Amino acid sequence: MRKLSQYAKDHGIVYRTAYNHFKKGLIKGAFQLETGTIVIPDDWSKPSGCEYTITYARVSSSENKDSLERQSKRLADFCIANGWQVNEQIKEIGSGLNDKRPKLLSILEKRKASRLVIEHKDRLARFGVEYIRQCCEAFGCDLIIINTVEEDKDRLIEDFVSIITSFCAKIYGHRRNKRKTEELIRNLSHD
Predict the structure, then answer these.
(1) How many CA atoms lie less than 13 Å away from 31 in the CB half-sphere?
(2) Whole-prediction pTM value?
């Protein structure tokens, strides 16, 4: 017998994911003691069909399609090297600041992945990656980030400029819409 924490460590997952597997009944023979400790028999093996690995590659513009293909291949190679079968390779073109990327949202909504593999956290989102990680863990999915090197100063400056540009575009878009509405009202009231 071993504790759930040891099971999580042996399988390379966080405790919360292991706990979610226990609650969903994916760990056959596991039970909870009166003390609250969850134990798993030593002869336990993972049920087939339990793992579902999705790789997610993203670039910000269609000019980088070649880069998108190379990124997706690196993700698949990483999974194969770790002995994981790749069930889906998702490729998306869109800004990391855009929170309405249909393919990423589909992964989170369908909740069938037990493992989501990305190359770098900014491929998933420029900001709020921890929220996405928590969302994944809530449905038993491990978020695997291959390159965990922290961002350098130049990268942070690029992010800052992107945010300012995005907000400026929104502000000017609202002003333009307001002017068009006011002009339409003036034209209608003169008729």
Answers:
(1) 5
(2) 0.57
